[in-house]
Structure formats: C-alpha cells, structure tokens
TrEMBL record:
Record-linked PANTHER family: NAD(P)-LINKED OXIDOREDUCTASE SUPERFAMILY PROTEIN, NADH-SPECIFIC METHYLGLYOXAL REDUCTASE-RELATED
Limits of the NADP-dependent oxidoreductase domain: 15-322
Molecular function GO labels: oxidoreductase activity
Amino-acid biosynthesis found in the keyword field: no
Keywords for the protein's UniProt record, in alphabetical order: Oxidoreductase
UniProt entry tagged with the keyword Oxidoreductase: yes
Name of this protein: Aryl-alcohol dehydrogenase-like predicted oxidoreductase
GO cellular component: cytosol
Highest taxon, organism lineage: Bacteria
SUPFAM superfamilies: NAD(P)-linked oxidoreductase
Amino acid sequence: MDYVTLGRSGLKVSRMCLGALNFGTGWGLGVEEPEARRLIDTFLDSGHNVIDTASNYNSGQSEEIVGRALHGRRDSVVLATKGAMPSGPGPNDRGLSRVHLTRSLEASLRRLGTDYVDLYQCHFPDSVTPMEETMATLDGFVRSGKVRYIGCSNFTASQIVEAQWAADRVGGTPFVSLQPEYSLLRRDIEAEILPVSARHGFGVLVCGPLGGGILAGRYQRGGEPDPATRMGRLLASDQPGARAWAQSNLTDRNLAIAEAVADVAGKLDATPAAVALAWVRSRPGITSVIIGPRTMSQYVENLAGFTLELPEESRALLDGVSEPPVLTAARS
C-alpha cells in the first residue's frame, strides 16, 4: 500500500480516501447502510485508511453509519470529518464561531461513536467570525485530545494565509490540510490555491475528481441524462437550486472534456473513470483523492484509477483540452 504523509504532519494516509457523502438516505438519494458498510469494509480490508465525512452529510446519517462500521477497528483508521454547516434554524447554528464549532464537534463525536477524530476540517469559510476565534477554538480541540489535526475545506488562497497567520497570532495549532474540489473540469485551484497550500506545507485531499459523474462517461452532448443518474435526478428535482447546479455542470465545455477522456480511455483499454482519476492522482501537490462510490461496481471501477499510469501524450492532451481561462491568462 502506498502511504504518504499529510503535508508537514507525521500522519500517514493512503492515496485513496473513501468519501462518505452518499452514505445514508437523509437526502433521499443515498446509499443504504448495508451497502455502505460493505464499501467501508472492502476499502479498509484492502489497506486504505482514510475515510472522510461531515456533520451534515445525509442529515448526520453518514457519520452514524461510519461510526458503526468502524466499531472494533477505530484506531487503524484516519477518520476525517467537517464542521460549520447549519445544524438548526438559530443564528448560532452555523459557521466557525466557538459556540457552533464546539457544538458541532461534540455532535459529530456522538454520531461517530468515538472520543476523537484524526482530522477536523472547517467545511466552509465564515466571513463573520474573526479568524482568531476560529483558530483558538480549534487549538483547544487539539489540546483536549478530541482532535489530532486540523484542516480546511473550500478556502481561498487568501483565507488559507489569513488562517495560518491567525493561528500564529493566538499561539495555536495551524492547519495541515486542505480539501478542495479538483478535476479535469475544475482546475482553477492550480492558479493560486495549490501554490499557497504548498508554501504552507498542506496535504491536499481532493474531492469531486469525476466531476459529478460527467468524467465517468455517463452523459453525452445532445442527449438527455438517464433519470437514474445523479444529474438526471437533479434535473427532475423540484428544487430550483438542484436543477440549476446540474445545468451549470452539463455544459458543452465539460461534455467536450468528457469526450476527450473517453477517447483516451479507449486507446488505453481503460474506463473513463480510471483515466480521470489517474490524471488527478498524478498532479503535483495532490496527497489523496477522495472517491464517493454508491455501489461496489463503482468502487471496483475507481480502483483502476490508482494503478493506471497515463502516457505523456495522454496527459498533455487532457491538460490542453481542460485548461481553464485563468491558467491560460496566467501563462500569457
């Protein structure tokens, strides 16, 4: 098994991370517990060791399922969760304040059935709470033993720098990791976020490497998504935000990139998902890649992306077709 350290920490993590976003049925479209348990057991039995969840995934069911699945093997797992998302209707039921983070961590520990988490991450930035308050609170979690390491998710480059400076000002524990979205469809983090993360010694655990299934070849230009697919379900949703999100992803540009991935896959006798994952895994500065399979067949398909080595011409082709305007402008 290929283990690497998480940034400048001493924590060893596998290059593949199991994302638990889909575990549970609280949002109506998730994975039932028996299948989720089977995925977790298969993942851990293969030697991988990082599982990532969050306080709000499937209304808390994700953490509960993960906690039950880890009974008897907790100490061999790097367990990561996240706080900040709303937990209720009150004004203090969200964000990175001391009151909400403390409540969120305690609730996560109860759902996970553990007295500590290995990596506690700020799910989203908070423009209202002073960063010094957030970093001092997180440092208290580390000193109490309830958290081993801290990280952030969805932070901009300037927010990363602000957080590290704030930790220094309060004499607290700095972040050691970042969890951003990254794929052939979304490469904007290469412009500023990845360089800043490298300068601060972050481990980078990327989510969304298949672009919501687009890079796995599930959607084609000119065709309607299968109602059984994620995008198909979202387009049929009665939630305007869900429909808008799906439409914003099913663009001509994204589908053209997916076609290029499929062409490369055909030449390499591989699946599009394996090619997309292999590309992300091989990028500079990437520590671990989070996968989010719903079924065992999807999990098996994802595995190939962690052994496939892309030829230089294939990487160059994918780099070119997927380069976003922000990177093109930076090079001009």
